[in-house]
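Tokens for chain A. Residues wanted.
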């Protein structure tokens, strides 16, 4: 049961110019994760899913923007981002994962 919960922690990798630069230079990968997950859960989920060793995890809460749709006001959802740094010798190939 624990492995099933860990498989749901990581929602998607974030592929952008900034995340590609950090992945190449620092072995740091960026993931969108569940809002209620903590650093230990994220570390265990990455190690389980990608078969790598994690050195550190940094977590960032991204707050949704307030938007207007004509005369209606709305708000985008809040979400959580995780920067996962791998130990030397390990790598994640996101294009094949």
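Reply:
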């Amino acid at each position: 049961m624990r492995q099933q919960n860990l498989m749901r922690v990581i929602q998607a990798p974030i592929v952008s110019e900034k995340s590609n630069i950090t992945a190449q230079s620092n072995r740091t990968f960026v993931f969108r994760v569940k809002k209620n997950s903590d650093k230990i859960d994220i570390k265990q989920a990455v190690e389980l899913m990608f078969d790598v060793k994690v050195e550190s995890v940094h977590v960032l809460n991204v707050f949704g923007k307030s938007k207007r749709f004509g005369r209606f006001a709305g708000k985008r959802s809040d979400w959580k981002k995780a920067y996962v740094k791998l130990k030397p010798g390990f790598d994640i190939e996101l294009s094949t994962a």
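The chain is about 30% helix and 35% strand. The chain has a mean pLDDT of 92.
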